[in-house]
Amino acid sequence: MPIIFRSTPVTEPFTFESIGKDWEQDHVTRPGGYPFYHYLQTEKGAGKIETSSGSYILRKNEGLLIAPFIRHSYEKYDSLWFTKFASFTGTAERSIPQIMGNRQVVPVGSARGAQIAGLIDDCVAMYDALPFNSRQLSVNCYAILINIADSTAIRSPSDEPLYQNYVLPVIKEIERNFSMPLTVETLSRGVFVTPQYLTRLFRRYLNCSTYEYLTSFRISKAKELLITCPRLEIQDIALRTGFSDSSHFIAVFKKAVGATPLEFRRQN
Known about the structure:
Largest sheet: 8 strands, antiparallel
Protein name: Helix-turn-helix domain-containing protein
Radius of gyration: 19 Å
Pfam family, one: AraC_binding
Number of helices: 10
Number of domains: 2
GO molecular function: DNA-binding transcription factor activity; sequence-specific DNA binding
Order of helices and strands: EEEEEEEHEHHHHHHHHH
Strand content: 15-25%
Structural class: alpha+beta
CATH class of the largest domain: Mainly Beta
Shape: globular
Domain HTH araC/xylS-type: 168-267
Organism: Mediterraneibacter catenae
CATH topology of the largest domain: Jelly Rolls
């Protein structure tokens, strides 16, 4: 059961945070989700995945991509469950939502899954051939993402008035002013709807609440600063990413990422 975790700096547009196959899958529960896009596919048996947007049964060669910080759990649905998996990072990681049509859960059928299985097998084999070819791994990683994106008809919300009038302006406001003291209440007032209605729209189009999207964006920016500005104090990073104090920032970061900001910085 080969399993590889990234141990080198991120230099390619797309690469694997982790990748593996022949893994006898245990029960997993992640109330705060996982910090990277990650993909799980059945090799043998069957598994059941519960997410905030629904329940999925994965049989042979069927898979599911889950976006960062989306609540989920999975367990055996058969007497055994062996899986392949991959989680994704890279210098172009921020483009993955666009590749996936902003869907935060993407199911993959068995026909497309068979192609993805071959790519995962090839990538695992490449890690065994030291020194591994990081450029070719990046190409294969991108090929896996494209296969996942092409596995189902992804409907873009760009033509929907509710998305254009309410969700998109809030996304742009978060991108521009994430360092400011934004709240769901202030964001909803900006588009003249209630916080509850705005959250329903975010769940409809992005499979997450407005608060979850805002927090995820801030954590993503904090991760960038932790890596690119190694001398920047944690308190300064907290303030630059919209957190009122460092204690709150550390608590939210650890819940989302599974490590404190300093631990994350040391690991990367």
